[in-house]
Design goal:
The complex is a heterodimer of chains A (about 120) and B (about 450).
Chain A (H helix, E strand, L loop, with lengths): L2 H7 L4 H8 L2 H12 L3 H10 L3 H18 L2 H14 L5 H30 L1
Helix pairs in contact in A: 3-7, 4-5, 5-6, 6-7
Chain B lengths: L4 E2 L1 H8 L3 H9 L7 E3 L2 E5 L11 E2 L9 E2 L2 H30 L4 H32 L8 E4 H18 L3 E7 L4 E4 L1 H18 E17 L3 E13 L5 H7 L1 H12 L3 E13 L2 E16 L1 H4 L5 H7 L5 E5 L3 H13 L3 E5 L2 H10 L7 E5 L7 H9 L4 H4 L3 E5 L4 H10 L3 E4 L4 H11 L1
Parallel strand pairs in B: 7-9, 13-14, 13-15, 15-16, 16-17
Antiparallel strand pairs in B: 1-3, 2-3, 4-5, 6-8, 8-12, 9-10, 10-12, 11-12
Helix pairs in contact in B: 1-2, 3-4, 4-8, 5-6, 6-8, 12-13, 13-15
The chains are: A mainly alpha (about 120), B alpha/beta (about 450).
Chain lengths: ~120, ~450
Amino acid sequence: MTVSECYARVKGDYLEALGRFKSDSMIAKFIMLYTQDTSLDDLKTAFYAQDYEKAFAAAHTLKGVLRNMAFNDYAMTVSEITEYLRDGKNIPAAIEIFPMVVSKAQDTLDVVDAFVKEREG
Amino acid sequence: MAGEYRTIKEVSELWGISARRVQILCNEGRIPGAFKKGRTWLIPVKADRPDDRRVKTVEGDDKFFSSELHERDMEFLYSFLHDMRQNVSSILGFSELAYTHIKDSDTSGKYINNISDSGNELLDMTNNFMTIIQVERGEIEPDFKINNINQTIEEAFDKLRKLAHERSIIARCSKDIPHEYVYVDYVLWHNVISNLISFILRNTQRGGSAAIKINEVGMDGLDRCIYRVSIDIVGGTVGRNFAKFQRTNSQFLAVKRVIEFLGGHFITASDNYRSDNLSYSSSDIKLAFEVPFKIAPDQNEKTTSDGDNDRSKYKGKRILVADDNLLNRTAAQMIFEEEGFVVETAEDGIFAVAMVERALPDYYDYIFMDLQMPNVNGAVATKLIRGLKDKKKASIPVFAITANVSEKDRKDSIAAGMNGFLEKPIDIDKLYQMLDALN
């Protein structure tokens, strides 16, 4: 799987990432970093504990991570939940959209894990 | 070959001393069989740690010091304490005079300035002595980072010209530095240059003249340039004791030691004692040393594009990036470094504040902070920086980098004293617009 293929599968913007990180090898390094990022875990933990203030902070951080990675499809969903959680604006809507966040996270992780395994292979 | 020799790092871990100390022992030839292959020291596996204590214990001795000191060390200590005593006496003397003339603000003001000068000299002396000890004990590890060395030199020259003028000293400063961006331990280099400027001012008589020249004189291999720093003083204050001065003056010794620590060496330190009449004696002093610096090649490339000319003025500026998220922090660092900035990072607002507090006033040019951080967030950290006593540090431009700026975030950040916002991911054009707007 090439970097551009990886981005196609996660519905990210490969050209945006290339403009930011300058090379496929640098993008690959950041994909590795992404696999170690804990923002999604923090979001899940806070959500399950119904600590929506912490959930907002985690979602906000995750949004930044995804935007940096140009994982734009996933980022849009996280952006939406972030705004619902901000200052407790619309917790019911956040709860409703949370499963989609988790689902997109899993889809992204499946592709990224496969990409990393091939590299390490 | 493998298995017969160890590297400096391996020996450092084995002997429980710093790598720098091991290197010094190798340079001094005190490890039998150690040799240099290229730039790497190789030390025989069988080599024992030499006894590198500088003083010997003397059993059953009535002397005050528990160990025997070299005569040279005693001479230095005596001279150091003598100079300290002079400054302390000055402070006490001028304090009394200031108190006596307390109703005359002009006169008492002059005495207070004298007290301040003596106090600063005392502080410099103790700092220099501590630096010598730290270097000798291998407690300092150089921290080489890319820096615009030309800037430090220019600031020092400005300071010298101003203070020299106030003391009726003619100061001439010149430099020729084709490679401005080099790897340098900024703190140590700043220490050297500040001490040299202070040395010139303290050791040149009123009406005398001093010239300082900093030139790049050659290359050492493919990637290191050699700087030569020359100082010429006509009408120095040292007089006939220059030889002793070199052995005992803490400022001179600190500069010499730090230069050697940075891999440089003194070329000349000489004087020409003159006696014009019975009541006037002085010396002309010449000092010169060379120090190598590794060149940062990418930073020294000049841009020819008109569109980039405005941006080139930001190359080499130092940014502190504070973000608790590793990926975001790394991405920001990479983006800024790609643009030619020198970047340091902090994992939280509290570390960022601590780094600013510890740094010299002109060290950081800009700070970029994530708003959401677990312990001290961006707005609070900015408030703490704005409250610092040092005015220069307190006014460092601080920008928020954040995934999204809400109206509340905007208000809180402005109230805290932030200068602007950048959304993640960082847009380079917007970055430069913000920096230009500051100017």
